Every structure is written in structure tokens, then in C-alpha cells.
Amino acid sequence: MRTLAEENYLKVIYNLSQNETGATASKLSEKLNVKLPTINSMVNKLADKKLVEYQKYKGFILTEKGQKQALEVIRKHRLTELFLVKIMGFGWEEVHDIAEEVEHIKSPLFFEKMDLILSNPKYDPHGAPIPDKNGKLPKSNLKLLSNIEIGKTVKFVAVSDSSSDFLSYLSRVGMSLYSSIEIKDREVFDGLLTIKVNEITTTLSGQVAEKILVE
Questions:
Q1: Structural domains in the chain?
Q2: How far is CA 59 from CA 16, 83, 135, in A?
Q3: What is the rounded average pLDDT for all residues in the chain?
Q4: What count of other Cβ atoms lies within 10 Å of the Cβ of residue 133?
């Protein structure tokens, strides 16, 4: 049986492997806030269980078995976040830490019931895809808001940063998932965007625009 720490490592390795930087020891240390000797010790344990292997230039990668288990934890996390928002009335900025605890519950029936109540959802409250019971993810072709041309109108469907501070900021400026966003202007110097969202004109920094995914 996996420990809580092992599940956290598998999830972080999976998430890092989706980025260009990969799951290096230094990146794991940064994300998990633990020292390198501890990282190396845990990764060796995961390797002994045939969950992780090392590849030159790519860092630590999950085996097929490891990826399946990582996606299982991610599924539990994202289902929980959606349940907390849709059924329990939490704000989308309030659910991450709670889901971090609930995702380690071992009962498959618990999450099957949650999935049923939510009518087999495909995305969590931040727009991240929810793996199905077989570990398959819905396909999507999303773009960064920062790359959209002036004059175009797009739909806000996901964020790449689900931190409480960032989500609270979006709520304060009136942005929520599935809002329609029209690009009115862009400042060449710093990427400052002038947009129209929900009939209100506002501005977003280039840094914020790079964390918003649209279609």
C-alpha cells in the first residue's frame, strides 16, 4: 500500500513531467519543500517499487505503473475540489488544501459515489481535466490568453495557477470560468492586456495573462 508521502511524490513527478523542465531532484526539492537527500531516498524507494525510473536529460519519470497510480491520486484530488465547490458551496480558491487531505482516502467506493453525484465530470473547478477511472484524460487544445490576437473573443476555461491568492485576484476583477473575453488592446512593452469580460472593461498584467487558458 502506498504511503501519503509516496502519493505526493508520484503526483508532483507527474505534474513536473508535463513541463519542459522535467522532474529533476532540484525541482522536486523546491515543490515539496524538502532537502535533496530526502528526495533521493524517497525516489529510490519508488524505483524499488517499479514506480519511477531515471532518464538522462529528463530526470525522474513515472513508469506505466507509476503513472497509473499518480493519475488515481490526481483524480481523487480534482473530484474532491469539484465536489467542494458544486455540492458544498466552497469558493474555488478555498478547496486545494482540503483536497490535499481527502485525496489520500483509500476507499474506491467513496470516490465512485462522489463521481456519481457530480454526474461523471470531465473538469475540476479550475478547468483542469479529471482522469477517468482508467486514467484517461479528456483531450483539449487550449491557448494562453497572452498569445491571443487583439480583436479576438475567447472563452476562459482553465488556469495554470490554482493558488488561493491568484484565484482570489481573478474573482475580485470579475473573472470566472467560461466567461467570454474580448481582447481590446495589448501593451508591447510589458504585455498589459485591456480586455472586456462580462461587459466590463479591465486590464490584466502580462504575468496574469500567461496563467489563463482559453479556447
A1: 4-62 (1.10.10.10), 143-214 (2.30.30.90)
A2: 10, 34, 23
A3: 94
A4: 13
Mean pLDDT (whole number) for 70-77? 97
Average pLDDT value for residue range 65-82 = 97
Q: Give the Cα separation of 69 and 106 in Å (integer).
A: 12
Cell of 105: 482516502
CA distance 29 to 42: 11
Q: Residue 178 pLDDT more than 90?
A: yes
Helix (H, G, I), strand (E, B) or coil at 54: strand
Length reported for the chain: 215
Specify the pTM: 0.90
Lateral strand order in the sheet of 193-197: 143-144, 212-214, 153-159, 180-186, 193-197, 200-204
